[in-house]
Amino acid sequence: MEQQTVRIFVGFDSKEVVAYHVLAQSIIEKSSIPVEFSPIVLSNLGGLFTRERNALQSTEFSFSRFLTPYLSGYEGWSIFMDCDMLMRTDIAELWALRDDRYAAMCVKHDYQPKIETKFLGQTQTKYEKKNWSSFILFNNDKCRALTPDFVNTATGLQLHQFKWLENDDLIGELPVTWNYLVNEYDYREDAKNVHFTDGGPYFDEYKNDDYAEEWFAARERMLFVQQRA
C-alpha cells in the first residue's frame, strides 16, 4: 500500500529553537501532500538515547538522528532533516524520488569546508561523507541495523559514514539542490532545500547570508495570526 503521509523527523536543538519551527513552516506552506513532523528532542526520547555528548558534536541531534528508522517502526519511508534548513519547493518532488533499491538516499557532497568554526564557535570537523547525513531519505525496513543499542554505542564515523549498511551501493544519490550548502556553494536560484550549515540567519553573524531574506520572510509567516476585525 502506498504510504500517503510524508513523515519528517527534524533535529531539534535548544540553542536554535526557532529553526525547527521556520523549517516546518517552509515545508507546510509549499507541500501538496500530507506531512507529519516529529522533532527529535533528547528530552523526549525517554531513555532511548543514552550516549554522552561528544565534544566534537555541534548539535544536540548529531547522533540521535539515526533513531529515525526505529522511531518509524522500521516501516515505510521517513525523511530526516537538520533544523537549519529552508524548504523552497513542494516536498512532494522529493517524495517522488524514493527508490526501493536503496536503504537510504542523500546528497553525496564532496567538498572541504571553507571555515574552521561554525555557529557558537563550534569546531568545523572534516571527514569523508561530511553532511551526507544532514538530509536523509530512510527506507526504514532496510535500516534495521540502526537499533537504539547500535546508535548509542557506534562511533560517530560509523554512523555518519553509513557504515551500518553492507556497502555504499545501498546509498542512493539525490540531486545537490536538495541539500544545498549555503556559503559552501554559490547561490543557485533553483536550490530546492537550502542548508545553513555554517550557522542559520538567526545568528547575527549569518543574518546576511544567501537565502537569509527568504528565511526571515518564512519566520514572519510562521508568526502570522489573524486578529478580530
Describe the model:
The protein is an alpha/beta fold and 229 residues long. The chain has one domain (6-223): Spore Coat Polysaccharide Biosynthesis Protein SpsA, Chain A (Alpha-Beta Complex), CATH 3.90.550. Helices cover 18% and strands 16% of the residues. The chain is built from six helices and nine strands; from the N terminus they run E-H-E-H-E-E-H-E-E-H-H-E-E-E-H. It has helices at 17-28, 68-71, 92-95, 148-153, 156-160, 212-222, and strands spanning 6-11, 35-40, 77-81, 85-87, 104-106, 135-139, 171-173, 180-181, 193-195. It has a six-stranded mixed β-sheet, with helices on one face. Helix 1 (17-28) links the parallel strand 1 (6-11) and strand 2 (35-40). Helix 1 crosses helix 6. The longest helix has 12 residues, at 17-28. The model has no long low-confidence stretch (mean pLDDT 92). Keywords: Transferase. It comes from Rhizobium pisi. InterPro entries: Nucleotide-diphossugar_trans.
Structural class given helices, strands, pairing?
alpha/beta
Instruction: Extract low-pLDDT stretches.
Output: none
Largest sheet: 6 strands, mixed
**Helix proportion of residues, in percent?**
10-25%
What is the rounded Rg? 17 Å
- Named at the architecture level, the CATH assignment is Alpha-Beta Complex
Q: Can you tell me the CATH class? A: Alpha Beta
CATH-level-4 superfamily name: Spore Coat Polysaccharide Biosynthesis Protein SpsA, Chain A
What fraction strand?
A: 15-25%
Q: What distance lies between the first and last C-alpha atoms, to the nearest angstrom? A: 46 Å
What is the N-to-C succession of helices and strands? EHEHEEHEEHHEEEH
Query: What count of helical segments does DSSP give?
Result: 6
Assign the CATH topology: Spore Coat Polysaccharide Biosynthesis Protein SpsA, Chain A
Summed up, the domain count is 1
Number of separate strands: 9
For the biggest β-sheet, the strand order reads: 2-1-3-6-5-7
**Quick one: overall form?**
globular
Mean pLDDT: 92
Keywords: Transferase
GO molecular function: transferase activity
InterPro entries: Nucleotide-diphossugar_trans
Protein name: Glycosyltransferase
